[in-house]
Amino acid sequence: MAYNVTLNGPGPWGFRLQGGKDFNMPLTISRITPGSKAAQSQMNQGDHVVAIDGVNTDSMTHLEAQNKIKSASYNLSLTLEKSKRPVPVSTSAPRIDSPRAVIPHQKPPLLVS
Fold it and tell me: CA–CA separation, 60 vs 57, rounded Å?
């Protein structure tokens, strides 16, 4: 289901794209900068970019999409489609609510007082 987002300019807009016709992948929001104009909108990581300022993105290369976004000086209007895939969860930092895993063949560290 497509929805529209209008970001008030000027940029930076606070999101990154991946994909494009040259990558044989749909243009997708790959990252949203916390606190940015994009973060304050309803767009989410993983959403597909259907149109930029009313221009369909099906045949756009990555560079063409970037240039179209950069050329928006006052407002940026995006038509997006929610991703059907769940947003990836960062695995770089351990979850606070989970105890540190102990590998069966290793012993937990000894505490010396």
Answer: 5
